[in-house]
Specification:
Elements: E1 4-9, E2 12-17, E3 21-22, E4 26-28, E5 31-38, E6 40-45, E7 48-52, E8 57-60, E9 64-71, E10 78-85, H1 87-96, E11 111-113, H2 117-124, H3 127-130, H4 138-155, H5 160-163, H6 174-181, H7 188-194, H8 199-210, H9 214-231, H10 237-240, H11 249-260
Keywords: DNA-binding, Transcription, Transcription regulation
GO molecular function: DNA-binding transcription factor activity; sequence-specific DNA binding
Protein name: AraC-type DNA-binding protein
Amino acid sequence: MEAKREIIFDKLVYSCVFEKHRGNEEFIPEHFLGFQLSGETHAFHADGSTIIPENTIVLVRKNQLIRTIKYPAKSGKYQFLSITLDKETLQQYALENKIAIDKKYAGKQKLFFEPDDFLQNYFSSLAPYINKTKEATPRLADLKIREAIELLLQSNPDFKQILFDFSEPFKMNLEEFMNQNYMFNVSVSSFAKLTGRSLSGFKRDFTKTFDKTPKKWLLAKRLDEAYYLIKHKKQKPADFYLDLGFENLAHFYASFKEKFGLTTSQI
């Protein structure tokens, strides 16, 4: 059965699968709070990987790239519920509650934790919307998002340094960032935003740093890594081509032959 991804109301998304499912790369533009109802999510990001087990809540920070693999539980079902904590709502909440921060969050980049009774009951309260036994009006949807913010701050007051940091992304070290994230198959404009640059600024800085256009550098970098995996790790292209950002095997094989003058079986 195919993966099911359903928008319950404006900022609440329910995902359900019945067999192992590899998701596409995703650019996370807003913070979101998620709950692993059943099964397990393996998330891959620039800092490595994170396993989100069943009955775990995760607070994912905005402006990052993530790839996921979804594993159903022994019962045969994977379920994940996420609610977006968008900038507009957070700014309004901060204004109404006179919240200001004077420092950035110093904890780990990826956050996941066992839910307390309040957060557990919060996600349980969303079940009627998932099951379509209750419909959320815009006002009620807004209240549920605000409730999520309240409960997060109650569980850890330091989360305010994440949620209410409205500063624009500063210019990141381009060489360091791209070497950590080249395997994500996303648009150049997404890479630009993540590094704190306009698209034109990103392309200009990229050419200065790497002496190549982003498209040519990304292809060469991915092919070099593929060569290493084949020759030194004895891996097969079918096992890793998606993880290196290639969309299909035919494109990978053709690009590999063009760059190295050899087929993968000749390495």
